[in-house]
Amino acid sequence: MYYYYLETNALYNIKNISVDTIKNCYTSVLSIIELVSGIKDDSSYRKRKAILNLVFESKITIDFAMPDEIIFNSFDIFTDYEFIEERIDLLLVLVKSLIESESYDYYIKSDQYNHRLGHEYFKNIDNEMSKRFIFSSNLGAKAMRQTISIDSYNNAVIIDNKEFNLNSTKKLGDFFDQFPELNSSMTINALSKMILNFSKIEDFSLEDVYNSYNGLVKTYVSFFSKYCITLIVNGGSPAKNDFVDLTHLIYMKNNLDTIIISDDNLFKKLMGDKSKSISELK
């Protein structure tokens, strides 16, 4: 049986998904935050309020772990440390206030909206989370580029006594197609650095964290790594929201029977049959 992860744009059509299908679907707190943080005027208020109301009325399963918590749990070295999460309860209070509000003006004048941990707080969380994942993404891409010039004198690497020349982006792409685990290792290293900085735990080295990776976010690591090398090989630039959109793959974890539902062409091009459009789900 397949399970379906509905990323943010799929939730705009949740009213068209049957009750039976919803039972095999789930979404995430990341989608909820993106819906809330995008409210900036009366039009976006009315549209997103209606969607959030439908989401909660549908009883769809919501993964309330933040992306950084899932990454934290992807490294066994932190097993004896507790990830303290205090944001979710605050978010739910804000969402309740939003759904029950009579108008946009009423909402933006509410105590919940103007609380120091209210609307602007979650808008900033959305922005900061984006910056953090973009930072880790850039680390991974930088490591890949350095591979060409650092690994050997002739831009070649030797694996199992076989030499691979990496003096062009085409050859680099072919190399990582043959050894995707090396590509993934750069992403894991970037995530290790990101979560070590975020957690502020000083007991471990970057190498310690990296070596404790347990594969929990395998889907994200695999497809994000593929995305980065594709950019490098094709010489393209990432679209404005690509890094943020790819963060949703964290919620697929290492579940091989999970498919992401989205009308974003990024996922279809990157993931093939691991991605379906909203119309295909209906």
Summarize the structure in words.
The structure is a single chain. 58% of the residues lie in helices and 9% in strands. The protein has 282 residues and is α/β, with parallel strands linked by helices. The chain has one domain. A 5-stranded parallel beta sheet has the order 3-2-1-6-7. A two-stranded antiparallel ribbon has the order 4-5. Helix 15 (265-271) links the parallel strand 6 (258-261) and strand 7 (275-276). The longest helix is centred in the middle third of the chain and has 32 residues, at 119-150. The model is unreliable at 148-152 (pLDDT under 50).
Individual helix count: 16
**Unreliable stretches:** 148-152
Shape: globular
- Classify the helix fraction into a percent range: 55-70%
Q: Span from first to last CA?
A: 16 Å
Structural class, from secondary structure content? alpha/beta
Rounded Rg: 21 Å
Biggest β-sheet: strands ordered side by side in the sheet: 3-2-1-6-7
Please give the largest β-sheet: 5 strands, parallel
Overall tally of domains: 1
By DSSP, the count of extended strands is: 7
Please state the average pLDDT score.
87
**SSE ordering:** EHHEHHEHHHHHEEHHHHHEHEH
